[in-house]
Amino acid sequence: TWKWVVGPMFLYLCERLVRFWRSQQKVVITKVVIHPFKTIELQMMKKGFKMEVGQYIFVKCPAVSKLEWHPFTLTSAPEEDYFSIHVRIVGDWTEGLFNACGCDKQEFQEAWKLPKIAVDGPFGTASEDVFSYETVMLVGAGIGVTPFASVLKSVWYKYCHDATNLKLKKIYFYWLCRDTHAFEWFADLLQSLEAQMQERNNAEFLSYNIYLTGWDETQATHFVVHHEEEKDVITGLKQKTLYGRPNWENEFKTIAGKHPSSRIGVFLCGPEGLADTLNKQSISNSEADPRGVHFIFNKENF
User: Fold this and answer.
1) Chain-centre distance of CA 67, in angstroms?
2) Between 146-162 and 184-199, two packed helices, what is the crossing angle to 10 degrees?
3) Measured on CA atoms in the order 157, 161, 166, 170, is the torsion positive or negative?
4) Helix ranges (DSSP H) in 65-202
5) C-alpha to C-alpha distance for 287 and 256, rounded to whole angstroms
6) Could you tell me the residue range of the domain that residue 239 belongs to?
């Protein structure tokens, strides 16, 4: 028995030593951006750091806790000269990070006063395969939209650099969100992509649908009053926010009809219940004929 135990234990110890060494490497916070509703963006640099789209890292801030490591999805693109995470202030640790970065103060925070950060990673996810398909469905639920910030940024960089060699030709993006507060920072990215795609006369490259799954009576009245305006009252986008949840069967059938005889990648970052639904739809809407349409399901749960 000890022979079977020693091998795996040795590999485990080696892996822990590598992670410890990586976590000791110097990380520099280059910029802290405060977004609405207590969401902060940390832009960082680390020597030798290389990432792919949709990956995540573990972050430790000794000024807040010397033992706690927390996972965060990278929201920057590999083409950028920094890597970034978005942190929503929802607990003691994130509140401590918010204060340590000086976000609770009105005056400008000097760079040397920013806290030390330790980073372990990056670690891979299913989202890395997004460029292996010509057509993809990206589905984010709530904060599960963060890996797709990295994906959409990278798609844009690749599209601008060499659109002819980009295998990905069509993106269907779905974002399901319970309240309007979470729309703020990500809506800015979508607005930028929307404007730039229109400038290049390729607005059809990205189709997106934003679903608000929770609202009260006051909000509903406000939405109805402003529904006829050119831009959406919540996001500022030309695409209007939808209310409720998608009819996934109709969505899959529509996309299958538009892209016959193709492999369509379905990428989810969201809860297990939604993963089960999308997996069943991917199977039921894929044809038995190898030359027909096939939905390939990839998930990342939280």
Assistant:
1) 26
2) 20
3) positive
4) 92-100, 146-162, 184-199
5) 10
6) 128-299
The size of the chain, in residues, is 302
The set of long-range contacts for 160-164, using a CB threshold of 8 Å and a minimum separation of 24, is: 161/79
Q: Tell me which of 123, 151, 179 is where a domain ends.
A: 123
Tokens of 32: 């802290």
Asked if the structure places residue 101 within a domain, the reply is yes
Structural contact between residues 292 and 262, judged by C-beta atoms closer than 8 angstroms: no
Tell me the CATH number at 176.
3.40.50.80
Q: In what order do the strands lie in the sheet with 135-141?
A: 242-243, 206-212, 170-177, 135-141, 263-270, 294-301
Token pair for residue 29? 């916070």
Q: Residue with structure tokens 């929503």?
A: 88
Choice among 11-20, 146-155, 193-202 with the minimum mean pLDDT: 193-202
Phi, psi of 14 (to 5 degrees): -65, -45
> Is residue 83 within 8 Å of 44, Cβ to Cβ?
yes
Q: Do residues 163 and 71 share a domain?
A: no
Q: pLDDT above 90 covers what percent of the chain?
A: 3
Closest CA to 53 of 151, 125, 192, 124: 151
Query: In this structure, which amino acid lies at residue 209?
Result: N
DSSP string, 218-275: HHHHHHHHTTTSSS-TTT--SSPPEES---HHHHHHHHHHHSTT-EEEEEEEE-HHHH
Query: Among all chains, which residue has been given the structure tokens 């920057």?
Result: 76
Which of 92, 123, 154 delimits the end of a domain?
123
Residues 85 and 143 in one domain: no
Read off the pLDDT band of 9 (50, 70, 90): very high
Residue 162 binned pLDDT confidence (cut-offs 50, 70, 90): low
